[in-house]
Amino acid sequence: MSLLQNVIQLLGTVGYYQGKITEFKGLITGSVFSNSGNTMEELLQNKAIIIGLWLILFFALERLRPMAVHPDLTKRPEARGRVIRNALLWFCNTLMSPFIVLPITAWASTHALDWRADFMDGNLAVLLIDLLILDMLIYWWHRFNHQIPFLWRFHEIHHLDAFLDSTSALRFHFGEVFISALVRAAIVITLDIPFETIVIFEICVLISTIFHHSNLKLPRALERFLSPLVITPAMHWIHHHAVRKDTDSNYGTVLSCWDRIFGSHNRTIRTPTMRIGVEGVEEKDITGLLLKPFKPRKH
Fold first, then answer.
1. pTM of the model
2. What is the rounded distance in angstroms from the CA atom of residue 95 to the CA atom of residue 21?
3. What is the average pLDDT score of the chain?
4. Nearest-CA neighbor of 178 among 155, 156, 147, 194?
5. Residue 101 φ/ψ, nearest 5 degrees
6. Secondary structure (DSSP) of 251-285
7. DSSP run (H or E) holding 145
8. What gap in Å lies between CA 41 and CA 45, rounded to an integer?
9. Mapping DSSP to helix (H, G, I), strand (E, B) and coil, where does residue 295 land?
10. What is residue 63's predicted lDDT score, i.e. its pLDDT?
11. pLDDT of residue 76
């Protein structure tokens, strides 16, 4: 069986289970947002479809045109194990979403400070401003995850991935996802952000995250055109370089301007041989990854 056939089979399996989970989310959100009709359910289902197709696209493209030499998933058990670890971390968070993440966001959206004027509802300009503000805030949240030791305990799990591709975009510890949901709830309440705006922003974030974590080799002209506007794979590769001064830079998620504005832009040039991971720390198995944030650390 060819690599492409294995990829299609793997993604088909993931897609099936994601569909089942999405159906379950629909049952949960149907009760949480019972006053909003089917709009919320449709929005969440469309989000799952968009992100699923985008992931499949880049999962295939980065294997057809890789920047770095990609592990051969059909011959190297350790490479397959890496993808499985990333998938299991994603699966944990997907299971947690309808029970914890969505209810927290739903509660926040119904308990917002309600200070917005009526003309702001459905206003495209307001939506764009909200998305801009949220992207700036997620820049700072990402930066805090590197600078605050307690937050780094959880975010480090994302960085321990020893290779970088589209599956790395799914690799987050459930503790980080839970804490992020609480912070997002505080933002929703304070800024009175509509739930629909949060979902649209999450779609933008996931599209960008899958793109800039991918191992896809972009044409140089396209890289030069995109990098002043959005975070590209070459920029984010530096963020995952296993050298701490590089890891603590290039924090942007969607737009690349925040790193330039707030002084964290790194001009290091990406090379295919750069070691990916955390300086001085090795990758763990799935049990080790789940337990690592809770273990005592030597200072």
1. 0.84
2. 7
3. 85
4. 155
5. -65, -50
6. --SSBSHHHHHTT----PPP-TTPPBSBTTB----
7. helix 124-147
8. 6
9. coil
10. 87
11. 58
Distance CA 62, CA 39 (A): 34
Q: DSSP readout, 183-251?
A: HHHHHHHHHT--HHHHHHHHHHHHHHHHHHHS-B---HHHHHHHTTTB--HHHHHHHTBSSHHHHTS--
Low-confidence residues in the chain, pLDDT < 70 = 1-40, 70-79, 299
Tokens read off for 73: 């998933």
Residue with token string 């920047």? 67
- CB-based contact 141:156 (threshold 8 Å): no
Q: What are the residues whose beta carbons fall under 8 Å from the beta carbon of 64, sequence distance 6 or more?
A: none
Query: Minimal CA–CA distance to 59: which of 2, 3, 1?
Result: 3
pLDDT tens profile 214-227 = 999 999 999 999 99
128 DSSP assignment: H
Kind and range of the H or E run holding 67: none
Q: What amino acid is encoded at 204 in this protein?
A: C
